[in-house]
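re: that chain from earlier
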Amino acid sequence: MRKRMLYLPLILFITIISVASTAHAEWHKQLNFEQETNFKNVGSTTYSIFIWDLYNSKLLTTSGAYPMQSEDAKLLYEIEYLKDVSSKDLVNHTVKQWQHLDINRSEYEHYLPRLASIWPNIKAGDRLTLVMNKSSSAFYYNSDMVGVIDKPEFGPLFLDIWLSENTSEPKLREELLGINKNG
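^ sequence. v structure.
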């Protein structure tokens, strides 16, 4: 009986590792989606403050449209940073943007420790990419996966920072969505 009790923590550990690896099996450790999925450009933009460009970003989906329509659709949102940004500043800016959108703190608060743990300090030239499907979201730093959030509501909540009609940057939204005001 005592021997069996000693194996219980080991069995529990193996079970947890198996479940965790199964949950992340869908996501690739390296970002190379040009070969694996046909993403189509929706739009791209550069975020600037006064005369300083801070980042370039692009939105791609498997259909070439946003929002995603089919159950098997995927989305890729990539930010290429042109300036250094700390992980702490990324998280703080994300919170400020959710507050701007009047999103209740209880809807995003539980994601903050996870974001703080997976987002690295950024140097000019680095890329942070969100790849999402209907059930989860994966973040890549440059081309390496740094974390997955297995909540279907996270991806749209995060993308609302740029794509909501109430975003603090409506011009960026239009460019990311490929909206032509003259057309």
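The first strand starts at residue 40 and ends at 49.
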